[in-house]
Amino acid sequence: MLTKAIEVDADVTTVYNQWTRFVDLPRFVPGLDRVERRDDVHTRWTISIGGLKRTFDATIAEQRADNRISWQSRSGPPHSGAVTMHHISAHRTRITVEMTIAPKGLVESVADKLGFLDRHVQVALDRFKTFIEIRNTRT
User: In whole angstroms, what is the distance from residue 88 CA to residue 109 CA?
Assistant: First the structure.
């Protein structure tokens, strides 16, 4: 299991609302080309990493406003995860990302062993922090 966290200077509602605006996630997540929300619980993700392009479907398993969203893949490499927003103060929030993934294929297995996903998630969190602190409101 991978766990990464970061604190941002923004209120928990703004953070939650921006994070759950899936169409904007490619702004922050390197290699994420597109996210389509099919309905309230079904999403389709298109990623391009290391020359490989993958599309997979995921189901939102839990969604609690201003607190947490979790998912489970339905296609592609088996994975699941959760993003939790923790209220620290009126203008500070801690974001925690937890993911479990079973690499599919040689390239993904090597990338996993080299810590690629760890770095990838940290870059996404750092980019999100920069964006939300400069903007301080959701798009």
Answer: 37
